[in-house]
């Protein structure tokens, strides 16, 4: 296949259970390249190569915002090789529900979509999580690929097969681990990405820096303004590599992978208790502030590194105009946050557990060999006071 | 552990994806023994051995019929080692829905059930399928064991990790493949099993005979009256072994495993279009009649074996008093059956595909190396006329 010289193809074996037991298919392929989705003809070639055999049909699942910009073009690409249909959802976290899943399942059944078909998930984290969940439960699992259109999805949520929808009792509480057969990342989608969405991705970049790679953190310290897209796109590949490496070592999220949840125990609680008025990015940045503070209080996170993290996150938050979100977070009550935090998937026996850093680039390993450190409810509540104090300075 | 001499422990590796990626846990253990669940103390020992570590809590999921007879005793067994709760559902296929799943998920969340807990599925196929589905999607997967209480569940549905609920467009259309960590089979449950439930299991025994093991078929030919339970229980273990062997060779249902779907394309269509008035057993017996006839018409199923199958199934159906069900099946229209058959998971590109026998004990391999043989809609419709003719003789 003749693809542009800039296209990188990364093969990761053992990314866990796929829909098929055949060894040759039990890998996920991650393809990164400018224009790889949007450029004429390239996508069909990639998809054909991913499969190396005939599909019965394709269904593209997307939201109406992405659809307006890209769906016509992409449905047309796929139509040249397969019968292709489009399912459009309202944009936003509200679509990530059991009800939406059931509606999509019914639409797929009505389209006669079968186990030899391919679902194409075109969108950000919501479409990827929801569509992946649908792929995992429709007729006991069908094949799907991710075409992530946001920075967050490109560097994080599209990789690793975590699927899910939100429940009334918390975010991502219903879901599966079910790998896509491929992830095709085209940074040119980011040209149309709204400001708020950028911060979602940058939050995860900070996470990769603190949990796994001090050089990514240093790069962010040296350049936390991100005036132009080009300052960001070269960081996609190193982030993708960290994610894929960790997932391939722990596909089912039973150990190492929990380090990628740093900042997310508090982050998800903020999102859920603000009724998703606070974005994922701002919530996770606040979450890392809080969990970093907890790690420091527990004597784990070294003081200089804790302060470096605080400084970087303050700069990132200050740079953006997030007053509405800040007000939403400020008005939260810690009782509410605690309620959601107590349903976090890392907990056991009603006790909070978090993944916490020792240093920038290194996570703390607990006595029991896991990365899940017990945190008292009091310390959790105090971290919220600390977060509020940071906010009032910002 | 000191268990009765009659307890058999079968270990099957590679039964596919489990909740945990740890190698040592990636096997399903199947334990068979009279009294192994109901006898004091035995169950706790088995469960502790299955885990070899502490659990945070147990939740027993069952239906109100089974609960009336057994739940108090079993909840008490588990309570001696773990905090244990009970979730009770109305009996019957109506509980196998997305709505029931969501209710159970919410109850689990309310109980604070976490990823270190164990779901105990106590019941027949409905509880096993529904509970397994819930286990696979609660917090992206929790551990579960099956305690099957019906013959059907003990020899078939509890083994192999097929989970699911029914959709308006067909049976088992929403589900996952997600292995239990253990299946504990106690034939003493069958002492309280209603007559109708027995035939469900015997239908699957005929299936094992035709698809995989001529000796099982011969045993059924020699003894299709089953006046007492003891005539049946010795056949549980050979059936379990066939199922586990096939599943371990094809955990994700991408090839060989489809032979176990013999009789089920038509069988599921009868069940669904009769609105579940026709039982699974009677439907699958009719389904094997019809699919056997199709196999014979296609020149696959040899005449003498086809006739032996017809004779055995007629005897099994005649032996039981099934007039209400027969009337329900007789009143079905083939258009309705075809509608449901067209949503069967084995189909591709809108074409019916079935697994069909060559001989008693041997399934036909298609030109493409699969066990899925294309069947025209006309032949499907004709098979219904043949089934009706059998019924009018019965």
**Average pLDDT of chain A, to the nearest integer?**
87
The strand count of chain A comes to: 13
**Uncertain stretches of chain A:** 1-5, 14-25
> What portion of residues of chain A belong to β-strands?
5-15%
Q: Which geometry of chain A do the CA atoms define?
A: globular
- Biggest interface, residues from each chain: A-B, 53 and 53 residues
**Oligomeric category:** homodimer
For the biggest β-sheet of chain A, the strand order reads 1-2-9-6-5-3-4
Main sheet record of chain A: 7 strands, mixed
DSSP helix fraction of chain A: 40-55%
Q: From the alpha carbons, calculate the radius of gyration of chain A and give it in angstroms.
A: 20 Å
Q: Please write the string of helix (H) and strand (E) elements of chain A.
A: EEHEHEHEHEHEEEHHHHHHHHHEEEEH
Secondary structure class of chain A reads: alpha/beta
Number of helices of chain A: 15
End-to-end distance of chain A: 51 Å
